[in-house]
């Protein structure tokens, strides 16, 4: 199965980056794109995110071997219904959504009988929109593919190949397992950041100037995560409800244990945990998921 034409639906950060990476790596693949928003279509064309931006969804997918839905997870069903009339019978339908069980269900419902292979490139930033994409977003990052039971092995191989050519490392996983893993590594950390920044802003009457002024501490790094796209993250929590609530239960228990340790002056518990978490940071760096420059590599004046 050769992928010579790729249609990208949703021309924001992820969609734009797929188009730019395809071009920058010189892949022999023609790209088309569509977004429901006319202004996004215009800006995507101006930046050359894909070879051809189409005015209608069905035109964008008409000759595509692979269609990738790059819209918020809550909009996957709508986007799938919009492309349905134009799909070629052999087309592989995939996506980049951050939760996988709910998306697989929405796509299967909207496109009965189609070859659907959901995927999630674990790569992103807190920026969104057609100006946010860049060609190296996927380089060295994981792309998790979650094929449904009985999926065509040739289609899985073709999709894996595509992501490998964009520079990603590919892993196959069951959708439910993906949702549990990502709840811990991505969804709960975002929820914590939203909570901390939200709490600080609730206290703003008393502390507003101090919160901003002294935000060179840990708070500043939370504000970056908490600036992530509100639509995207609303949809992630609504569609990965089960896994997030399960992991949140565990997290709350651990938080309560720490609260108890602080109250009772149990320094050993605190020290042991903080030592264990340092090891995790080292492993993240060793596996190439971050580098070890202090303070995220920020330049500091003398
Ligand atoms: P984005 O920059 O906001 O782009 C999404 C685009 O899709 C927007 O232009 C949006 O238009 C458009 N859109 C929304 N509903 C649509 C529909 N029904 N039909 C066609 N276009 C539609 O978002 P993104 O960051 O690229 O995220 C896209 C997907 O990637 C999400 O499912 C997200 O979970 C996943 N993802 C994101 C990251 C990340 O860090 N950002 C990482 C990995 C995966 P409007 O502005 O008009 O709504």
UniProtKB/TrEMBL annotation:
It holds the Pfam family PDH_N. Residues 4-292 form the Prephenate/arogenate dehydrogenase domain. Signal peptide: none annotated. Keywords: Oxidoreductase. It comes from the Bacteria. Gene3D superfamilies: 6-phosphogluconate dehydrogenase C-terminal like domain, NAD(P)-binding Rossmann-like Domain. PANTHER family: PREPHENATE DEHYDROGENASE, PREPHENATE DEHYDROGENASE [NADP(+)]. This is Prephenate/arogenate dehydrogenase family protein. It comes from Erythrobacter fulvus.
